[in-house]
Design brief:
Number of domains: 1
Distance between the termini: 19 Å
Keywords: Amino-acid biosynthesis, Arginine biosynthesis, ATP-binding, Ligase, Nucleotide-binding
Order of helices and strands: HHEE
GO molecular function: argininosuccinate synthase activity; ATP binding
Pathway: Amino-acid biosynthesis; L-arginine biosynthesis; L-arginine from L-ornithine and carbamoyl phosphate: step 2/3
GO cellular component, one term: cytoplasm
Largest sheet: 2 strands, antiparallel
Number of strands: 2
Strand order of the largest sheet: 1-2
GO biological process, one term: argininosuccinate metabolic process
Amino acid sequence: MDREVRKIKQGLSLKFSELVYNGFWHSPECEFLRECIGRSQEPVLGTVRLSVFKGQVYILGRESPRSLYNEELV
């Protein structure tokens, strides 16, 4: 995802979590947000390695053949 799509998705995710927390899973708004978030994830491909310990989640690494990160430009 590019930066702008990621920013929009973060805002939608907050609204989505609010709707789910308040029990509106089957509301039209929540269905719309699920569709938007799902569509934003279609081009996402890769692997994330996690460590879970005592209620904490740590990202150990991530890789994707479609990554926007380019080591040659750094």
